[in-house]
């Protein structure tokens, strides 16, 4: 039976430390080189989509997809995303290989042309709400544009809505980034109440925009996945159709580097985005869109495909969680959330210890996501959060990496307690 | 022997008109539907690259190209573009399927972050020099950002450099768009002297940027193609390395909708672009980059491929020019340039007649590029320039379209002269 570290004597802690250091040095001697830093699918997951490469056809609805044209995507691919996301095809624009680009370009558009009001670049200050911990690449976009980030604490059912409702009374608060299903990094899905409160927001800024990054919308780990309300069904009740811009992609469905993304928005927002697109491109890659449609056939085809991913991913999540359970629980040194989908496990260790855990792991050959990266400006004030990405390493390597991580967490906490 | 229209009597003109109207009405009766509006390759040209679809391999230099990563492109594709363009691979970033996006994004970057000086969005006025006639999509980008466009007359050896050298003394003139080889629409290649004068410019604006859109760099119509000086070889003599940003693409080499583009720039500019890209994407489509490398093998492979395009395109250009020669020369109503490459023929008709030519063509079922589009704000003050795109229609259709166009030019000029 594990004992709470904070109740152990110095001597007990030192004995524990000695034992752990022996295990740690054994790992170090193995010369490992393992990577749990990014949410990269493993090679076996990528193999699931190799059929994409067999599709050589380039005509759809009588259109030669090799040539120019079709700014907002081929109709069949718009339909596929519309069916998957429960919206109308007219509210979908199919994008490039990364939804990140759709988000960056949208923020850039708000910066140069505004979102129905003044261009943001002309304002003295622009602020965004950032549920934390969150996705570092969202923060990178905001930092690039000099948009001030305000931390919003994540609860078990989504962002702290009391705080959100308070902050939006400030007119310079122009938006919020959300990963509403299987949030990055915790794997939390926003509750129905949270989604409703978001849809009902009455921000002081008329051009307040929520980037609804639904990156993990169909990424369940088993048949008991979370359900997320479709916010576009609710927004009209509050006249807030223009407040939310949703993005999705096949980055973690087919190939991360060569998938297809989509942006979903109100008629007004689609029109504004098309104005920009009309100057920015002639079309995105229609042949790749067609490959995806031919490969999946329809939304059911995509969902069936996701079950194959789940069969590969679930055991990997289980390995990490088993090690956490065995080595970290009952010691009062770490907390985590058991996600039902997504790509990450978020581990909160004793305050002031996360960076040290990262160092110890690195010295023994295991790379974690840069500690701090899950907070705006890389600044996790409590130095507590660690994002684990279990997808990329093969099972045997992951087993080693997760065990080593637990040893490092325990060692860092003992160091801290011994002072 | 053709007679100058302006020297013909009203009666002679009316007889000519009667004859032409008979021919015109014959065409009209055919119910044609022909398109010479855009520089779209024909289906037979696209077929040349279908081998791209046979490439299923996804590993290069030991890297799994299906997954995330490699922000600036795969090394082999950077090398391919570097070899083609005579620059170092470190000065190449491989982009998405359209160089248009690279240009738009670069201007957007200057707008939000500047180019080594203040962000352009904070300035009271930003102006660009636009050689005219020019490429409408360049103008669309500038208009989207509210950048004021100043017309610069194109001479037979490039933009009027006296005018350019004068305008750049104005600090609010921040740049210029150039298509230096086989310019769109005239097919003029900048002379060595023009390139040298451009490289030697001393603009008042320290952040003056020339977008060197080398869209037709390898697009000769036969073995006697024009030679363009490599401006990057000359810029260092004047300390102007940062002044030029070049883009190229395979849009008219492989598939317009699914090709690969590249941006070529100085070390400083590449670093600034990468700062943005780091927030905007994780990587462009590496699998498509790899397909292109495997398909071409090397720069010689690309050049050999371009000869196949020339074999298809040259006869089409010849058809149009033959009709011009037969029907328009000697009448003092039209001038044109015989290009050695590129995608267009630029026809200047008697002032005040171009729009009417477009109308007459349209009524008989032939679509031309919107008359006026070759000028900023769609405003061809002389109403004279017509851009002909001979690539897309099959030879027999092109024959009809070119003959009809000549009839329409003659009719419009007669109408004008008869007043």
What percent strand of chain A? 5-15%
The H/E string of chain A reads HEHEEHEHEHEEHEHEHEEHHHEEHEEH
- What is the subunit arrangement here? homodimer
Class by SSE composition of chain A: alpha/beta
Shape of chain A: globular
Number of E-state strands of chain A: 15
The end-to-end span of chain A amounts to 25 Å
Q: Uncertain runs of chain A with pLDDT below 50, 5 residues or more?
A: none
Helix count of chain A equals 13
Mean pLDDT of chain A: 97
Largest sheet of chain A: 8 strands, mixed
Q: Largest interface, counted with CB-CB under 8 A?
A: A-B, 55 and 55 residues
Description:
Two copies of one chain form a homodimer. By secondary structure, chain A is of the alpha/beta class. Helices cover 40% and strands 15% of the residues of chain A. Chain A is built from 13 helices and 15 strands. The first copy, chain A, has helices at 10-29, 43-47, 75-85, 99-113, 136-144, 161-167, 192-199, 231-234, 267-280, 286-296, 299-327, 354-363, 395-418; strands at residues 34-36, 59-60, 63-64, 92-94, 127-132, 148-155, 158-159, 173-178, 209-213, 244-249, 261-264, 334-336, 345-349, 366-368, 385-388. In chain A, α11 (299-327) crosses α13. The model of chain A has no long low-confidence stretch (mean pLDDT 97). Chains A and B meet through α4, α5, α9 and α10 of A and α4, α5, α9 and α10 of B.
